[in-house]
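Quick log. Single chain, no ligands specified.
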Amino acid sequence: MSIGIVAYGSYVPRHRIRLEEIAKVWGADAPAYERGLGLREKSVPSPDQDTVTMSVEAARRAIVRTGIDPVRIGAIYVGSESHPCAVKPSGTVVAEAIGATPEIRCADLEFACKAGSEGMYVAVALVKAGEMEYALGIGAETPYAAGIVRLDDGVKVTARIVDVDLDELRIGQRVRVEFRRVQKEGEAGILCYGYKFVPVDA
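-> predicted structure:
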């Protein structure tokens, strides 16, 4: 039996920001940014878009290409560093939106820029094992705030900054550390916690 990709879908937000604008905010060299990334601009999601909405759009396009009934999809794996919710899987929302429920396996993956390809690998392995006819692997990202935070004792740490509109974030803004659940390994698995920073006035 031949196993492989039967269709693909993609979605890229229409808004753009030039790299020179990003470099200006960070006080960096714009030409160096452009050379290093091989880009002049990046796409930017609208305020009402996130990893889930972009995953749904891409998945719908893939389904249209195959012409299959979405209920034949046996699993959905969404790889991202920017899932909108720490506890509710993006995959379950995507499955419901594309009509792939009620019987489906879902999981969210996190692994820097590799999470999407790992989702595809798991999907292929399940089909190859004969567990299901079709499986869907998705990779989607939206920007999130990360920065270098100087602690009161002078130590600097790199961390995500949450619960703030990116337009309202500013250099020198006071933040506090919070320990939050980052992920859960299965229903009865290990709970993983990590630190994030929240603006003091949030």
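Strands lie at 15-18, 41-44, 73-79, 105-109, 134-139, 146-150, 156-160, 175-184, 191-199.
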